[in-house]
TrEMBL record, chains A, B:
Reactions this protein catalyses: orotidine 5'-phosphate + H(+) = UMP + CO2
Pathways involved: Pyrimidine metabolism; UMP biosynthesis via de novo pathway; UMP from orotate: step 2/2
Keyword Lyase in record: yes
Alphabetical keyword list: Decarboxylase, Lyase, Pyrimidine biosynthesis
Ranges for domain Orotidine 5'-phosphate decarboxylase: 16-267
Similarity annotation: Belongs to the OMP decarboxylase family. Type 2 subfamily.
Class of enzymatic activity (EC top level): lyase
InterPro entries registered for this protein in UniProt: Aldolase_TIM, OMPdecase_type-2, OMPdeCOase_dom, RibuloseP-bd_barrel
Assigned EC number: 4.1.1.23
Protein name as it appears in the record: Orotidine-5'-phosphate decarboxylase
Domain of life: Bacteria
Length: 286, 286
């Protein structure tokens, strides 16, 4: 899916909601548990019920891998079930040396039909670039995440002296910033606004305006609304740009809205509330 | 596998070689390709041929995921085939917020019987700790990797001021170091020498003595020997400790030693050369 197609979907439907399919077999409602393919059945019903309220689905690969082969099968059926009007995210946090990242890119972009994959930046350029080599596919790089551990490394003060030639003289200007700022700056040399997004956690709302300044036109994938406590209003006020520029994800708050037989209706109701709020923020942009 | 058991295996067999099963279906010898389960067949023969020369096998998950369901199946058959005398590594570079990392730990330690998994540190403490909660299982955290991209972030100069009370007075001493040094220091508060190792790339041989000083007793998993150009002698001289403390991995140099029907014998020959050299370094420790 191209950027133009994604933006068109967002403004046509008036929503930038992403529904996170972090499907845990232990949390599936009782009446579905005995189903031979319970995880897929659950996802299918959630997708059917929420399609009109969202523009994207994020599949958290960990929950499927934890079920072994059966889980990988449910993941594959799920991504193939999502209509191509909706942007699909493999939330996989992959990243390894170049020849290995090439294999991960194959896994999500060739063996599976995902539009995008989340990637961890620690290992640098050659661990990220293989994902960027696919026409119409997206890399969503971890920037500043929503979890408490974001403080451990992502927010460290960093610096680097770079030898450059200015008017024939070698100088060593110092580049400074938080680690995640280095990631934002470096990655914009590797990818473009048309194939690179950043993960920015909703719980970082205080810093959203500054983070937006680091990448004014890129899309941000924002997890952490709902169960993790981030505010949709704060994020939207600080980080929407002219082409929206946000995909806001809620997982548990939507898919586990009810434990009963009405789980899909309740999921739709919560997704609908988010979408209703988003519509007003999008209209304010005009 | 406990630390004592691993150390016993190393000294009993006189080797700290890890064989990396980065099995790419396109590189499997012709005569095996038509086999219905070619990847597993290839791995099985490599394992049978190299068992006596190594103490560990590292399965690079990317190569299996790239094959979809069939790949995940080959991965599972392979890890179950490795005898429990040998340490098994899921080279998966996982890491996500706490509740998601818990699912990844389940994937590799419960759904699959791996002894260890490689983990990316970017997201901090709560992304790493779930892996450390399993008795007899190991977390192998990325420290300083072997790829060119290691320079982008891992080698940044970092600092953090921490507010602490000294004799009733608030002071803010500054902790400084490269990013990977922060990772080494922080992680040693999360795990112990009995459940935490670090990845240190063989191509970083110049820095090995300093890196060893950061974690004198921890095991290091050292990829990058062979195809990536790292020197076994340099690494061993600088980083062996009294209990060995090293698992040195070679993947392509061993498993693709020959493209012919003799691939397993050739793999054994190369593995045997590494093991022969390692034996002399281990004997020099006594």
């Amino acid at each position: 899916m191209t950027r133009a197609q994604l933006v068109e979907q967002i403004f046509q439907k008036g929503t930038y909601l992403c529904v996170g399919l972090d499907t845990d077999p232990e949390k599936i409602p009782d009446h579905l548990r005995s189903h031979p393919d319970a995880v897929f059945e659950f996802n299918k019903r959630i997708i059917d019920a929420t399609l009109e309220h969202c523009v994207a689905y994020k599949i958290n690969t960990a929950f499927y891998e934890a079920q072994g082969l059966k889980g990988w099968e449910a993941l594959e059926r799920t991504v193939r079930y999502i209509p191509d009007t909706h942007f699909t995210i493999a939330d996989a946090k992959r990243g390894d040396i170049g020849n290995t990242s090439t294999q991960y890119a194959k896994a999500f972009f060739e063996a599976l039909p995902f539009n995008s994959v989340t990637v961890a930046p620690y290992m640098g350029a050659d661990s990220v670039k293989p994902f960027l080599g696919y026409e119409g596919k997206w890399t969503i790089l971890l920037g500043l995440t929503s979890n408490p551990g974001a403080r451990d490394f992502e927010l460290l003060d960093c610096s680097r002296s770079t030898d450059i030639l200015v008017d024939g003289v070698h100088t060593a200007p110092k580049e400074t910033g938080k680690l995640f700022e280095f990631v934002f700056r470096a990655a914009q040399h590797w990818g473009s606004e048309g194939n690179l997004m950043f993960v920015v956690g909703a719980t970082q709302a205080d810093a959203f305006r500054q983070i937006r300044a680091l990448a004014p036109n890129h899309f941000f994938l924002v997890p952490g609304v709902g169960a993790q406590g981030g505010s949709l209003r704060d994020i939207s006020e600080q980080a929407l740009n002219a082409e929206c520029g946000l995909l806001v994800n809620a997982s548990r708050a939507i898919i586990y809205a009810s434990e009963g037989e009405d789980f899909a209706e309740e999921a739709a109701a919560i997704a609908g509330q988010y979408a209703f709020e988003m519509k007003s923020y999008l209209e304010a942009l005009k």
